[in-house]
Amino acid sequence: MKKAFLEIYNGLKSLFIGLKITLGQFFRPTVTVRYPYQTLKIPPRFRGHIELVRDPATGKPKCYVCKLCEKACPSDCITLDGVKPEGAKRKTVTTYRLDFTKCSLCGSCVEACRDGAIRFSRDYNLASTNKEEFVMDLFQRLESEGFQAEPTPPAPIAAAAPAASQPPAAPAPAVMPEQIKVEQEAVK
Amino acid sequence: MMNYLSLHSEPLRLVLFLAGLMAFVGLNAAYLVWVERKGAGRFQRRPGPTEAGPAGLLQPIADALKLLSKQLIVPDGVDRTLFRVAPLLMMSPAMISLAVIPWGQSLAARNINLGLLMIFAFGSINVMAIMLGGWSSRNKYAIISAARVVSQNVAYEIPVLLVVITTILVTGTMNLNEIVANQAGPFWKWYIFRWDLNPLAPVTFLIFYICMLAETNRAPFDMAEAESELVAGAYTEYSGMGFGVFFMAEYANILLGCSLATVLFLGGWQSPIGILPGVFWFLIKLYFLVFSVIWVRWTFPRTQFYGLLNLSWKILIPVSLFTLILSSALVKL
After folding, report:
1. Interface residue ranges in chain B relative to chain A, Cβ cutoff 8 Å
2. How far apart are CA B30 and CA B178, in angstroms?
3. ipTM exceeding cut-off 0.90 for this assembly
4. A132 is in which domain, residue-wise?
């Protein structure tokens, strides 16, 4: 009998404790990142789809069409081709087709590349209603970016460092992305 | 004491009250959804709806437009009449019951002596509406939900009625205006604090509140529309405004339950400090209770079905019977 009453009392008490905790949360600031208006800082080693790396000296792609990436790709999503210009020692890339619908972002291509000619892009605004948009020509993408005489760090991992950040390609937010810090705190 | 709005034409007065109540229920149903979503957001440290209008204030209108523009699908092989009638049957008792709620000293659509009885008489129709909706949908989830609603409401009707009988013993009247008038004075005159008349008055209020949550099928007692198990329960087959009316009726019932709790236990339109009674005190108390309903919903997880029935049969009914016996003994003394 006493046990039953104690159970009711403790149960009821625990309910009120729960209510107190949620009310405490109610009056604390929200932690939502309102995405199109606010964005989080991308981690330095973010692995997006691959992109070609520019040779800082010439402004041309570093890639010399050895096709190791094509061979390394487990899902056959890379097709590339190039020409050997008159008097040049190596080929230069002319088309670099990435079928992103098949890509699993394993990064084997970046590992296979001997010269650090491809790296992970930091572009994550990739939503589209059109499947064809995900079959992209990375060479044209690089060309369309235009060359800024800014030295890019060579090694793949270092290349993904924040210094190499590029202007966002796909639907850029209308409002300037504002870096906001998310409070990391354990809920007591 | 009971002077109504100084409009002498009775039909005009009733029409005005009808329009006013319908507008009140409609507006509240729409904006309580907004409050609920904002509240849910804040309890989870999200901002809630923000895009439609300032602070998402146009969200209910956008939702209503969406629901209104949807096709009303009546599935094959359902009982068409019952299927269509069920949402209305759920909405109308709540609206009718609001007619006897005294909003202010001289503001009530109807001042009838059996107001409390009337509310509970119409309140039972609510259960039947969900049951009919579930039954006529010809959908297994809806039927399971209907069965749950019936057993849940049978279980919770008993403690709520025992609690109300206790209150009637204390007040000696079923007229809601008189019940509120009896609580005149500072807050310790409210029935929730009248230890002298009913030593377990706060417990009585708590039982009433829990039963109100269960009868309106609100979380943590929302077994009827347990999304994770029953899709949308009895509402599964309803589209467009069929669902919209059910949804509005849910909020209308919450509003009714909270108004009743305010009238019976929190002194209705009486002021807590004894001066300046008025409609706004009623509304403050009402919306505090409505907020607490939202607060409870976003705090507790859904109970299991046997837990829900155990709570009623093993705890609420014995306790409310005990309070009934106790306060009737006190009345006799």
Report:
1. 39, 41-47, 50, 295-296, 298-300, 315
2. 31
3. no
4. 50-164
Q: How far apart are the first and last CA of chain A?
A: 34
User: At A137, phi and psi to the nearest 5?
Assistant: -95, 110
Q: Which residues of A touch B (CB under 8 A)?
A: 8, 15, 18-19, 21-23, 25-26, 28-32, 34
Residue of B308, B313, B317 whose CA lies nearest to B162: B317
Q: Is residue A183 part of a domain?
A: no
Q: In DSSP terms, which residues pair with A124 in a beta bridge?
A: none
The CATH number assigned to the domain holding A110 equals 3.30.70.3270
Q: What does the pLDDT read at residue A178?
A: 42
pTM above 0.90, yes or no: no
A102-125 pLDDT, tens digit each:
888 888 888 888 888 888 888 888
**Residue A184 falls inside a structural domain:** no
Domain count, chain A: 1
- Note whether residue A56 is domain-resident: yes
CB of A54 closer than 8 Å to CB of A150 = no
User: What is the C-alpha separation between B230 and B240, in angstroms, rounded?
Assistant: 19
| Residue B277 confidence (pLDDT) above 80 | no
Q: What percent of chain B has pLDDT over 90?
A: 2
- State yes or no: pLDDT of A33 exceeds 50: yes
- Smallest Cβ–Cβ distance between B45 and the set A8, A19, A30 belongs to A30
